[in-house]
Amino acid sequence: MTKKEQLYYLLNDLCHGEIEINNFTIQFTKIFDLEIDYDELSEKEYTVFDNLSDMAGRFSDSAEDLKLPNVYYNEKQIRDGVSHALKELS
User: Fold this and answer.
1) Rg of the Cα trace of the chain?
2) Is 17 left (phi over 0), alpha (psi -120 to 50) or beta?
3) Which residues share a beta bridge with 59?
4) Contacts with 79 (C-beta within 8 Å, 6 or more apart), sequence order
5) Which of 18, 47, 50, 77 could form a disulfide bond with 73, CB atoms 3.0-4.6 angstroms apart?
6) What CATH number does the domain containing 73 carry?
7) Whole-model pTM?
């Protein structure tokens, strides 16, 4: 499975409840930020995945963290971002 396929797999797994949010955010940012060859992606895929990677990298489930405005994303925001990404890329 290519790194690009792994990113899509993670999106679908989160959408279908087959992966926990913490595991999703760690795996998604690791693959997108460190492992993938960006030449594998279309311009649209790169833009959508880059935005989602930024969100995933700033995920927190800490109530204290989430009190800080415009710093962290909560689980609902990540899930909404994934749903939006899947619609954009379909």
Assistant:
1) 13
2) left
3) 73
4) 14, 15, 21
5) 77
6) 1.20.120.650
7) 0.93
Name all contacts of 83-86 with Cβ < 8 Å and 24+ positions apart.
83/15, 85/11, 85/48, 85/49, 85/51, 85/52, 86/11, 86/12, 86/15
Question: Mean of the pLDDT values across residues 48-76?
Answer: 97
73 bridge partner residues: 59
* Number of residues written out for the chain: 90
Determine contact, residues 75/61, Cβ cutoff 8 Å: yes
* pLDDT score of 80: 98
Structural domain containing residue 20: 3-89
Cα atoms in the 13 Å half-sphere on the side-chain side of 75: 12
The tokens for 40 are: 């594998």
Number of domains in the chain: 1
pLDDT band at 26 (very low <50, low <70, confident <90, very high): very high
